[in-house]
Amino acid sequence: MSEALTRLPALLAAHVLLSAAALLLALAISLPLAVIAARRPAVARIALATASLIQTIPALALLALFYPILLGLSALIGTRIPALGFLPSLLALTLYALLPILRNAVTGLTGLDPAVIEAADGVGMTPAQKFGWSKLRLPRRW
Amino acid sequence: MTMADASAVRFDAVTKAYDGRTAVDSLSLSIARGSFVALVGGSGSGKTTLLKTANRLVRPDSGSVSIDGEDVAGLAPHLLRRRIGYVFQNIGLFPHMSVAENIAIGFRLERRDPGERVARLLDLVDLPRDMAVRMPDALSGGQRQRVGVARALAPEPTLMLMDEPFGALDPVTRDQLGSAYRSLHTRLGLTTILVTHDMAEALLLADRVLVMAAGRIVADATPRDLLTGRAGAIADALVAVPRAQAERLYRLEHGG
Q: Mean pLDDT lowest for which of A18-27, A102-111, B128-137, B212-221?
């Protein structure tokens, strides 16, 4: 029991590291994609459909799916890519995080009152200011 | 050049079409500095499109617009818009900002300190100063549009563009705000272009009424000329409605 407990901090650290890395990676992919998707409905449809599709794959199946893919990739480029452990877990978690981030970001961006956007233009905001002042309003509201 | 100097806004052969449907049809117009001009017409007559070419919310397909002799296409749109007051029906107050922050947005965008401006602007639009800390959703429709007007006036524009600004308000508030704005217009020496579908409002507020239909100006007259039937048949038809209503009310009151 105590022996198991001594391993806890290291395992916890590995867990947090993995989750945080996956979250950051998912944010880095989803947020720029959401900004594009908010302006182009076609991109939004494809991106959300793809993310939804990924969400339907069971976790174990996703990990199992990465095993041959990563092995195949290793063979293809000649260097050894680990097919078990951190990397496939990171990829799977990242893929799972895409949909909630993407869907919420697209909803947040497209759900803005058109009057607020017109006002933002009317008072002379640059596109960057518009994004900063009116689109990223949710965190300030909370 | 002297011609350009005499007018605050000049539209030169402005044309704009949406999907092949003409909204504004080669329209030329000159608006004198200090005047209060109402653009009246039914929906789809092109009045809002024309108004928005002045602050480049709409870019004309051809033709040009100049303000104080300067072509608006020669300026970055955001810089142009910061010099022009813009008020519209749906107000568009930023919901996450207080009244004060909304009014001071023009200053914040340029990283300038609004100083005492917010309190003075609240005075100007007849709102109590302690309203500055409120959020927009805690205000009535009329109060919100007063904030909208204050926000537009904050950077001290000389030109105000108003698109059905009082259209969503109840008749009493609408009348109050209309008169209040009219006196501000005079007091601050503004040039105002007001888009409205309400001929009575146009007649009561403006010095010059332009009637638009199918992207063209079909009547251009003072309210008095419009009322005395000197502005043509289309204008007469539009004036007939508020006049008939006024006469009916008068008869009701006097038992005629």
A: A102-111
- The pTM of this model reads 0.80
CB-nearest to A123 from B91, B95, B105 is B105
Taking only the tens place, the pLDDT of each residue in B216-244 is: 999 999 999 999 888 888 888 888 988 99
Residue B122 CA to residue A10 CA, distance in Å, equals 60
Residues forming beta bridges with residue B30, ordered by sequence position: B10
The size of the A-B interface in CB pairs under 8 A is 65
Residue B79 to residue A124, Cβ atoms within 8 A = yes
Question: Nearest Cα to A43, choosing from A53, A34, A55?
Answer: A34
A54 C-beta neighbours (distance < 10 Å), count: 15
Nearest in space to B180 (alpha carbons), one of B133, B219, B127, B130: B127
Q: Supply the pLDDT for residue A120.
A: 92
Is residue B162 classed as helix, strand or coil in its secondary structure?
strand
Does the pLDDT of residue B145 top 50, yes or no? yes
Choose among A87, A92, A93, A104: nearest CA to A47. Answer: A104
Question: How far apart, in whole angstroms, are the C-alpha atoms of residue B104 and residue B112?
Answer: 9
Choice among A58-67, A90-99, B90-99 with the minimum mean pLDDT: A58-67
Are A117 and B57 in contact, with CB atoms under 8 Å apart? no
Q: Which of residues 85-114 of A touch B (CB under 8 A)?
A: 113-114
Chain A residues in contact with B96 (beta carbon < 8 A):
137, 140-141
ipTM value? 0.87
Facing residue for A121 by CB, picked from B79, B81, B95: B81
